[in-house]
Structure formats: C-alpha cells, structure tokens
Design goal:
Blueprint (H helix, E strand, L loop, with lengths): L12 H17 L10 H9 L18 H13 L6 H14 L9 E5 L5 E6 L6 E8 L2 E8 L4 E3 L9 E5 L8 E3 L1 H36 L1 E2 L2 E2 L4 H30 L7 H27 L11 H10 L6 H25 L1
Parallel strand pairs: 1-3
Antiparallel strand pairs: 2-6, 3-4, 4-7, 5-6, 8-9
Helix pairs in contact: 1-3, 3-5, 4-5, 5-6, 5-7, 5-8, 6-7, 7-8, 7-9
Length: 345
C-alpha cells in the first residue's frame, strides 16, 4: 500500500457550507470566555442536523459519514471558536463502544483509560458528559464499559484554555464490561492523537489568515507591514510550517481511512503528523505574535483564540517529545533499508 496523495481528500462543499453557516451563526452570538462549558443549545442544534454522530452508522442514529467529513467539522469548530466535545463523543467514545458490540443512545459521552489505581487524569469533557466509555486492564486484558457519570468520582479541572480536563476515578473491580482487543486500544490512541493534529492544523491555518490580513491592512512608516521584508519572511515561515503540518496530518488521515485504520505504517505516520504539528505550532505562534505586535496580545483581538489552543492541543494525547521519540524509534528500527517502505507503506 502506498500513501495516497493529499488531493484524494474530498468532502461535499455543500456540507462544509452548512457547517460554516451553523457554527458561524453561533460565533456571532457567543463571545469566547475564560472557562468553557458544553453549550446544550448548540449541541441540540448539531444533533438535529446529524452532526453529533456524524460518523455513526445509520441504524444507530448516525449520519454514516467518514473521517474526512469529521475532519472538516472539527476544522469548522476551531475556525468559529466553538468548543464542544464532538470528537470525544463521536470519533472516540461512541466508536469504541460500537466496536465492542454496544449501541450508543443520545447521551453525551467521552472516553477515559484508567491506570492501575483506577484513575484517569486530564479526561476531556468528563464533567459535562452523561456517560463515559471507561477502559481498564485486568489480568493483562483490556475491558470497556459504558458507565453513567453518577457511578464515577469526577474531579473537575481545566486545561490552559478553559476546556474541561477532569480526573475520573472508578472502582475497576466493580465494573462490568466486555473485553477489548489490543488492536482496538491502539486504534483509539491513534484516533485520539489524530483528532488533536486536525484541530491544531485548523488553528494554524486561521493564524496564517489573520497574519496576512493584519500585514496587508496595517500601515507602518507610511507603508503596509506586508512591504517589510522581515514581516514577509515571518509570514512565509508561518505558511510553510502550517502547510507542513497540514500535509503530514492529511497523509496520516488518508492512510487511516483507506486502510480502515490498519495500515502497517499508520502509527509512524500519525507520529510524524503529531511531531510536525507540535514543532510547527512553536514557530507559527512566535512569528504570529511578532507580526501583530502589541495588538496581538490583547483579549479583544482574535489571535489568542487560535495561538493558545494550538499550544495546548499539541501536548494532549501525547507530548511533542513523546511523538518525536515515536518517530525516532520507528526510523531506527526500520533502518536505512526499510525507512522508505516505512514512509510510503
């Protein structure tokens, strides 16, 4: 199997327009706040449009779409500043439960993996969920159960941009679930990592557009900022880094979809995407704030709506250092003769 070209990714433009219309209307009436809670009204509206279970099978109430469509939805939520657990609910928790033979109802879900002490930390959106797909290990075998939040001990917390990242504690000895194959658990890890890569790429794209608009309209010393070579160089670096991150993420997504998440080099490509995204975020954020100057540090300007999330999301579901190490280990294991096959599949 060879890596499919990024151009192979196609989504119905009408669907993208609908996503933008709904989320754009939400953005005009909801200014960003310090702490983020799931907006119940927006959730109901997205549910009525079939976007909450976008990738779910039709016989379970889903829209039977795929990851390309889901990536566009995630991108639209970032573009319009809508913080809502669509990925955690649809792409992770509900997918996992259905993969284990369960069916999902209309309850809002997220997912967590308990450690040996029955705790999971930094669980996204647990405090705003109705049920949690809880994974634990017993006797060397992973299990999963769909657990109501009333049966769990949840300590609310937030990440640096105010999104819920909570501590979940459960009595794993009292949980009753079904066995999970190791391949499914690994697939969950890769899907979680790719979700954040898609979100960071969306933020980087918006940062680039803001920089272009600012440099074109801002007059300094009698001419637009875009006429200064130093500014041109910084924006060129931003564009290059955002494009690299997007290309690496799209390459991983394409192989994931075309191989049904079983490509032999998928883990490597996801690691490459997360590594590229993580390093790109550093360059893009630094240059973007230099381009904008003092105005870019104000709450009133939209720049922080994308720079701060980019820096936060790049470290979730694995740090930059973690994914760098995954890339390095895979490359060393492949050796000089096997590296090209690792890249191309």
């Amino acid at each position: 199997m060879t890596t499919a070209p990024v151009e192979a990714i196609r989504v119905d433009p009408a669907l993208i327009d609908m996503m933008d219309a709904v989320l754009g209307a939400y953005r005009t009436t909801h200014a960003p706040t310090g702490t983020v809670d799931r907006d119940a009204q927006l959730w109901r509206q997205l549910d009525e449009l079939g976007l909450v279970r976008l990738t779910g099978p039709e016989h379970c109430g889903g829209s039977d779409a795929g990851w390309y469509e889901a990536a566009e939805l995630l991108t639209a939520t970032v573009r319009h500043g809508a913080r809502i657990p669509l990925a955690e609910h649809d792409l992770l928790a509900c997918w996992l439960l259905e993969a284990s033979g369960s069916r999902c109802d209309s309850a809002v879900r997220t997912v967590c993996l308990l450690d040996d002490h029955g705790a999971a930390r930094d669980v996204p959106w647990a405090s705003g969920a109705d049920r949690i797909a809880v994974i634990w290990q017993r006797g060397g075998q992973h299990h999963v159960a769909d657990v109501g939040v009333e049966s769990l001990q949840i300590t609310p917390g937030v990440n640096m941009i105010g999104e819920p990242r909570d501590v979940v504690i459960a009595d794993s000895g009292a949980l009753r679930g079904v066995p999970l194959e190791a391949a499914v658990v690994e697939q969950l890890r890769l899907k979680s990592a790719l979700v954040r890569a898609v979100q960071v790429c969306a933020a980087l794209d918006e940062i680039l557009q803001l920089c272009i608009e600012h440099a074109s309209s801002r007059i300094q010393f009698g001419r637009p900022l875009s006429r200064f070579q130093a500014v041109q160089n910084m924006i060129a670096d931003i564009a290059a880094q955002a494009s690299l991150a997007r290309s690496a993420t799209d390459a991983a997504l394409t192989v994931a979809v075309t191989s049904s998440w079983s490509g032999p080099n998928l883990g490597f490509l996801v690691a490459v995407a997360r590594s590229c995204v993580g390093h790109a975020a550093s360059v893009v954020v630094r240059h973007a704030h230099q381009v904008h100057g003092a105005i870019g540090t104000t709450r009133e300007h939209r720049l922080h709506e994308f720079t701060r999330p980019a820096l936060v999301w790049r470290g979730e579901f694995g740090s930059v250092q973690h994914w760098d190490a995954r890339v390095t280990d895979a490359a060393l294991q492949a050796g000089g003769t096997g590296l090209w096959n690792l890249i191309t599949g």
